Amino acid sequence: MANESFDEFILFISEQEAKFVQDRITGVERHFAELCTIFAAFTRKAARLRDKGDELAKVIQTYADSEVINRSLSTGLTNFSATLSVIGDYRDAQVQRLDAKVIAPLSQYAMICKHARDDVKNTFAARDRELTRRRHLDKVRERNPRNRQMISQAESELTKASIEVSRVVKGLEEQIDSFERRKLHDLKSILLDFITIELSFHTKSLELLTKAYQDVAAIDEIKDIEDFQSARGEMNGEFRETMRVPDSVARLDTVGRTSFRQAYSLTNLASRFASSPVALQKLAKGGTESADSARTGFSNSSESVQVEEYPDDSTEETESESIQEKPVRTRQKSM
């Protein structure tokens, strides 16, 4: 009975130890897996941010290349794009370091925990074999107390099982202690590496962003406005020059209008003199000189388009000719 109680106590202790060790291993496995998952997601976000930063730098550089008027703005955008590209390089290094120093060590703990769990199982399997050998020896002693051969054989098997248990238990204790020490050291190192990586990246980013701030602040708005107004003035001048009528065409138009008016006034004068009886009498008495002087006086007048009124005793032929000349005066005025 005493032996059975001792065996039950040993079995209870073994089960408690097994549960304790298994819980520790399971907890480490679960938490490290969660840490690995969240750090991997963090790294993927950093990689996407790196890619978006490269796209941003490319768009800004394209704008800078297309800006030909605001030279100060173009220079500022070019410098800003270059700074963003350098920040992207540091962010790429950040991603690579996170993957190598944080995610990779955390992902290894799935296999480490599996090996630790297997060691625990082997240890307690050896302890179970020892308990089995002990119970077998007790049964042999009870059933065959005088059979020294069977008792000796059972005792020999129990001794081997005990030695194996002692060896396995000692190894398991060392492995569990090593597992705990490694877990603590690795987690501490991983977190310190993460902090160092982030500090390094943000320190460099702070320096570069300070430079970027200075480059953008150096954009000379007043100078760029002056350049824009100058370019706009040149464009307006070219437009006015294109739309300007050549002087030769204008002079030709003026000469044409003057010649037409002079010709019209002389023709009108000749027709009036030809149709009026008074004018015919004057031409008969005064001769050619008075008619020439009249033509000269009317041709020198710039307002010769106006026609004087004639008495009511004019003939029907004169009125008809007068009516026919009105459209000609109208066209002359429209010019």
- Termini distance? 142 Å
User: Could you tell me the radius of gyration in angstroms?
Assistant: 58 Å
Unreliable parts: 282-291, 293-335
Task: Note the beta-strand portion.
Answer: under 5%
Average pLDDT over all residues? 74
| CATH homologous superfamily grouping of the domain at 19-217 | Arfaptin homology (AH) domain/BAR domain
What best-fitting shape do the alpha-carbon axes yield?
A: rod-shaped
Oligomerization state of this entry?
Answer: single chain
Quickly count the helices.
9
The helix content is: over 70%
Q: From the 3D coordinates, which CATH architecture of the domain at 19-217 would you assign?
A: Up-down Bundle
Family: Belongs to the CIBAR family.
Protein name: Protein FAM92A isoform X1
GO biological process, one term: cilium assembly
Organism: Pogonomyrmex barbatus
Could you describe the 3D structure shown?
With 335 residues, this protein is mainly alpha-helical. The chain has a domain of 199 residues: Substrate Binding Domain Of Dnak, Chain:A, Domain 2 (Up-down Bundle), CATH 1.20.1270.60. It has 9 helices and no strands. Helix 2 runs antiparallel to helix 4, helix 6 crosses helix 7 and helix 7 crosses helix 8. The C terminus is likely disordered. It is found in: Cell projection, Cilium; Cytoplasm, Cytoskeleton. It comes from Pogonomyrmex barbatus (red harvester ant). Keywords: Cell projection, Cilium biogenesis/degradation, Cytoplasm, Cytoskeleton. This is Protein FAM92A isoform X1. Its main location: other.
